[in-house]
Write a structure and sequence with these properties.
- This protein is mostly helical and about 200 residues long.
- It has helices at about 1-60, 65-80, 85-105, 110-115, 115-150, 155-160, 180-190.
- Mean pLDDT is about 85; it is low at about 195-200.
Length: about 200
């Protein structure tokens, strides 16, 4: 009888230690997801801050399609107030596409393309999009690892007991470089940086 009791205690102790180890691993992976999300948020905020710079660069050019400019400003406002991964993903894809349309229009204005403000915007956008691409890949990798944990046995047992739920992915569409016009111009900007301007990543 005593041997059975000791065996039962040992089994319970092993199960407890196993549960604690699984729980701590899930917490660690969830924290990686949160860190990745925070990194994306920083880069998206940097891009939001670039929109006024873009507005300042183009607003003085007669004939420029002001509706497109207003649309980008409106899209920026929606992106800044979007909540959750799904909503933010949609809002940021729309903003990236809007920036792409505006930059494509700028192709018709040689003086605008040559202006210091516009070239400064393009240089800053190169850096932001590079950082955003890296942050999105890190975040999605962390989400993929975490989701694998919470969906596979034995981790899913602990995940369900303590309310761990699968994360959501950010799509590549949140990057302005996913828009063909921007991708081409960013490539040109990287290949031929303006004289005296440092386009290296911070």
């Amino acid at each position: 009888m005593e041997a059975v009791l000791i065996l039962s205690v040992l089994i319970l102790l092993c199960l407890t230690l196993w549960g604690v180890w699984i729980f701590n691993r899930l917490v660690r992976d969830r924290n990686l997801v949160k860190t990745g999300f925070a990194d994306i948020d920083v880069q998206l905020q940097r891009r939001h801050d670039l929109v006024p710079q873009l507005v300042e660069a183009v607003k003085g050019y007669a004939g420029f399609e002001k509706q497109v400019l207003q649309d980008v400003v409106a899209l920026r406002g929606k992106a800044r107030t979007a909540a959750g991964v799904e909503q933010r993903d949609g809002a940021e894809k729309a903003l990236a596409a809007g920036i792409g349309r505006l930059i494509a229009l700028a192709e018709s204005y040689p003086d605008l393309k040559a202006s210091g403000n516009f070239r400064r915007f393009m240089s800053d956008l190169v850096q932001v999009e590079d950082h955003l691409q890296q942050a999105r890949r890190f975040y999605n990798g962390a989400v993929r690892q975490f989701n694998t944990r919470v969906q596979q046995f034995p981790d899913l047992v602990v995940a369900r007991l303590f309310g761990f739920s699968a994360g959501e992915f950010f799509s590549a569409g949140i990057e302005a470089r996913a828009v063909p016009e921007v991708r081409r111009l960013l490539s040109d900007e990287t290949a031929e940086p303006p004289e005296g301007m440092d386009t290296r990543m911070e």
